[in-house]
Specification:
The complex is a heterodimer of chains A (341) and B (255). Chain A is mostly helical. Chain A is built from 14 helices and no strands. Chain B is built from 9 helices and 12 strands. In chain B, a hairpin with an 8-residue loop joins strand 11 and strand 12. The radius of gyration of chain B is 18 Å and the shape is globular. Classes of the chains: A mainly alpha (341), B alpha/beta (255). The interface between A and B is medium-sized, with 22 and 27 residues.
Chain lengths: 341, 255
Amino acid sequence: MRQAVTWRLGLVLALLVAVVVANAAIGAVAIAPGHVVQSLLHRLGAFDMAEIAAGQALVLWSIRLPRLVVGMLVGAGLAVAGALMQAVFRNPLAEPGLTGISAGAAVAAAAVIVLGHAVAGGFSLPAVAFAGALVAFCAVFGIARSAGPAQALTLILAGVAVNAIAWSLLGYLTFISDDTQLRNLTFWTMGSLGGATWPMVPPLLVLVGGGILVACRLGGLLNLYQLGEAEAGHLGVDAGRLRLGAMALAALIVGACIAVSGQINFLGLVVPHLVRLWQGPDHRRLLPMAALVGALLILSADLVARTIIAPAELPIGLVTAFIGAPFFVYLLVRQTRMAGY
Amino acid sequence: MLMLERATLARGRRVLIEDLSLSLAPGEVLGLLGPNGAGKSTVLAGLCGDLVPIAGSAMLDGRPLADWSRGELARRRAVLPQASRMAFSFPVRDIVGMGVLPGSGAVPATLVAEALSRADVAHLAGRDYVTLSGGEQQRVQLARVLAQLWSGAGPRYLLLDEPTASLDLAHQLAVLELARALARDEGFGVLAIVHDLGLAARAADRLALLKDGRLVAAGPPGEVLDSATIARVFGVTARVLPHPDRPGGILIALG
């Protein structure tokens, strides 16, 4: 058992290192993988290495590396948030978008882009998108609550309603936008890691990195929650608080991710499934592994997005949706068959 | 002693149980009977603390249930639900392991193995819970609540909501025999909601008959189960015939 955990971890970490180096090396300015490692070691001061050519170093350190770090955090965050949502709804088809978080962030960002920065009141675009995500989440949870004890079904229906409102607002903002604004809007609806900068990293580390660490500590309780809300309660778990806590955590993580990358579909849905197929449903191991696999997959998708139509760049959300949607259909069919409907 | 005292229980605005007193003592098996919709599950919800009485009280060992923390309660009482679906493919062994309470000092693996074998599901230990039949799932859940009680402490209570519902005849008898053994050997107070009057009469020390949210009769099976009471509670004509081995006789439903 322990051995299996070790080799899985080793495999994912090795793949992650490989895709990190590939991402750092490949692009309009090619940098030899050896030079990537050399430059990293030089800056870290661990070895007596010479710095690489100035132009390459600039591309590496101010464009590719922030994008890599932000990408890993976003991928890990979306995957963990997806796993949290699926655990809380006790449904493998749940995903962060259900709670209106993504749509809320998109509307807030679009409002700033189309109506002008005065709307933002001095806050940056990511900060506004983050606020939008949380407002949408609170609306969904508030609606579900006012209808009675917040059950999974009322939460989902409230999510559908808030999503519909958000998308109609987004549609209106798209309708009245000019050409430049429209291009900026697609960033939010289709996702991109292209806007990543170093200043984004500290807040992401706190919200997403910290959120993932907290989530990983909930693994044991989320396992008990799978028995059912009442059953978990009989085992001493405060199920209501656990559900609210896990959902708020997911909202915080996804809000922060979307704020820097726009909407990246299907990662949150697919990654927990892959990990479950691979190592079983135990949340104590699922959550940390989902974080690693999420980081791995988003960097792979970003590599495709950056290179497939070079010198132009494809929105990463298109890549993840193109691969994720067929997989979603496969899961749906499989689950329905297994349930024997 | 786990008890409801003149308790009124409601879900939302609907009052389902009115002014009902019922107690479960350590070491006894209490059978809870009644037609569908009589309020049996509601009584169980009141006894386990899920539903707080709007009048009267629910007490565990002299203290209102609401004053116990969730963790304390988990060490003292376990609840077997009617049916439990899982969304994800946990192995049976892991599900039973979820019953083992943290900080109990027990060795989880030993406890799980013992619980699996007592519920006659040891052969399913490695199987995926989702793929089991309803009856098998029910027995796995039984193993889980056993693991929970064994990792608890003090006088303990086991509340079973239709533990025999999806079981074959042999397992119905085995589960009720297990309930008897737990009461006799470990001093657990066991309450079981059972539909089969014959099975209930055989397994229980006392029966409580419920109709329309009220307690109609309570006492030893031989005293409670007569044709008049059965007609009143279930609307069924039945005869109790003498039997050489069974003090209470045997019951035959005539229609």
